[in-house]
Amino acid sequence: MSFINYASREINCKIVYYGPGLGGKTTNLQYIYERTNPQNKGQLISLATETDRTLFFDFLPLDLGSVRGFRTRFHLYTVPGQVFYDASRKLILKGVDGVIFVADSQEARMDANLESLDNLKHNLHENGFDLGVIPYALQFNKRDLPGAVVYDVIFRALNFRNEPTFEAVAPKGVGVFETLKAVAKQVLHELARK
Amino acid sequence: MTMLGSNLVMYEEEFDRINSLLGRLWMDANAKIVFLVDKNGQQIAAKGDLEKVDATSLASLTAGNVAATDGLARLIGEKEFSILFHEGERDNIHISIVAQRLILVVIFDERSSLGLVRLRVRKAAAEVEEVLNQMASKAAEQGEAPVSPFAEITDEDIDALFTE
């Protein structure tokens, strides 16, 4: 749910990175954090376990400058991917404006991708959203790994509404900004429609 | 209230009122910082010694905290825990839910007390709720939401946001 403040001429949008555990959601955020000018970003907050697994969420506020005189801010969140953190995932989707699904390209993770996508659909629904219409982009991460599934195969498995889809190698930044931009665009267009 | 679940649009008039309400609470409660965020973690207004804190992160973590606590409440059959209090060595945080959708946060130290903060927060929360109700009835009167400032946004506008 975007929040438009006409008094301070600001708009804040919430984008959530979703996907199976160890798929690279946090890495996406870390790359964005590293490559953004200090004046355009806030702190990257990671609520993680001692072994660096996301426990609740990661959070990165991004200031993208202004559109039509409104200061435009995106709040990027990741969810914990591990199956048993479902209650937390549901909470983080509250008030979401756009979703990025980070899929793990490895053959062995295909089931986890499908399960997580299904879980996303369910949790969005619980929050009153429909995955069929919400601003959405798909990212196939870890394209550089030898076990990566052929593009056509993973595309057929996960792309279901002709959403913008990107191949990525998150630690190197390949596809990271492209994915974010695709969702941001839809979110802003959605605001224009309202 | 119809505005629950709808987009919150705040205009100058309400924004000024909220700001002055927070200013009064800040003084009356002898607080260091007072701020108001929505349940999604977006800061609405703040007052006090903000230079030393990262207000955006504070807002987001507060919302996360409240969301987790709400989840806990539902698990045991409560609607919500309307007040949370965290006590530190020097500073304390008092968090309360206003009108089910906003979060009022007061940070204070030994110059104030929990009793005083609770008392002042109760009054301020009622006043903030009043402003919200006004916003809701205003929105209902006006029917249609105002034309979004983004109504004529172009791809170029969006692309321009991402050029480094």
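qc> Residues 1-5 of chain B have pLDDT under 50 and may be disordered.
qc> done
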